[in-house]
């Protein structure tokens, strides 16, 4: 990345920081939108993660983060489970047909 691009990137970042007008009184984190601050206060600030991954010890404060984690980290596990279930169904159907 060129020097000019880095300077432009830093300026954009600074402008975005100045646009964040909604600030959490507990931790001083700021947000552009009031909804972002509300979500932060409801699910994140000072709270323990409440969404548990069914496949590993990972826990998330926001459900969409858990969904992304499962899709990224456990997709092969989910695919294998799905294939196993499909195989069992095919096996049951084959037994039913052969009788």
Written account of the structure:
The chain has 99 residues and is mainly α. The protein has 2 domains: 1-47, no CATH class; 48-98, no CATH class. It has 4 helices and 4 strands, in the order H-E-E-H-E-E-H-H. The protein has a two-stranded antiparallel ribbon with strand order 1-2. A hairpin with a 6-residue loop joins strand 1 (22-23) and strand 2 (30-31). The chain is elongated, with a radius of gyration of 23 Å. The mean pLDDT is 81.
Question: Total number of β-strand segments?
Answer: 4
Helix and strand element order = HEEHEEHH
The domain count comes to 2
Which structural class fits the helix and strand makeup? mainly alpha
Assign a percent range to the helix content: 55-70%
- Spatial extent as radius of gyration: 23 Å
- The DSSP helix count reads 4
Counting copies of identical and different chains, the oligomeric state is: single chain
Spatial arrangement of strands, main beta sheet = 1-2
Give the N-terminus to C-terminus distance in angstroms. Answer: 69 Å
Compute the average pLDDT. 81
Shape: elongated
Keywords, please?
99 residues, mainly alpha, C2H2-type domain-containing protein, two-stranded antiparallel sheet, 64% helix, 4 strands, Znf_C2H2_sf, elongated, Znf_C2H2_type
């Amino acid at each position: 990345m060129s020097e000019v691009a880095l300077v432009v990137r830093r300026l954009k970042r600074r402008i975005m920081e100045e646009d964040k007008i909604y600030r959490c009184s507990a931790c001083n984190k700021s947000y552009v939108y009031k909804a972002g601050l509300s979500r932060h206060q409801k699910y994140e600030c000072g709270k323990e993660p409440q969404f548990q991954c069914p496949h590993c010890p990972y826990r998330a404060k926001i459900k969409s983060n858990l969904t992304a984690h499962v899709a990224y980290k456990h997709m092969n596990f989910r695919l294998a489970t799905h294939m196993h279930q499909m195989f069992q169904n095919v096996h049951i159907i084959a037994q039913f047909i052969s009788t």
